[in-house]
Amino acid sequence: MTTTSTDRIRLKKQRFLEREQLIKDTTLGLLIRDGVEKVTVSAIATEAGIGKGTVYKHFQSKAEIMMRIVSDYEQMLVSNVNEGIKATENGDPGAAAKAYFDSRLANPALDRLVQQLEFRLEADESVAIEMERLHKIRHSMVETLNNMVSKLIERGLLEDVPPHYHYLACWALAQGAVDVCFNQGFADQFDDKEKLLNFIANIGVTMGNRGQFREH
Length: 216
What we know:
The protein is mostly helical and 216 residues long. Helix content is 73%, strand content 0%. The protein folds into 2 domains: 1-59, Homeodomain-like (Arc Repressor Mutant, subunit A, Orthogonal Bundle); 61-216, Tetracycline Repressor, domain 2. The radius of gyration is 21 Å and the shape is globular. It starts with a helix and ends in a 10-residue tail after the last helix.
């Protein structure tokens, strides 16, 4: 079978994307296992079974790889929440909240790592453009959530408080759920971690429903 120049270009692009994904996946595994400080480009290359120069063909630095991990995670979260918002608009009031909790609590170690990476990269000028793009995506999501929550309040489904109270309460609950997974004081109670996280997520889905709030 004869291959055309178009086929060769397509195959080359496919291999490039596969190597890029390999680098990101390898880096992610090393960061979770060894911590940010111990991971180097050399370690990434060795673990991935490729040359150090190959890593630099895809990414200029470890910071750029870490920024891509943060961005990919944010895109996943936004995509899932957007699907939840669509389901909410189609009659399932708790769908957006469920999508949010399911996304963040599916892998607490990854969620915690991404937060650590974002904090570390905030002041890194080499990824300033990517960080600004991340913030724009997040701000756009906030506007979408404001609109959705406002409609649910108008329908009498959620407590009549400023819309950001609702989604920041979800953030706080998810944040606490992730943190509790790594609290050594509770380590002896984590034989049912998955059930615990599912319980917390179920609370989050109904949190803020009309009739729950009591002002003191």
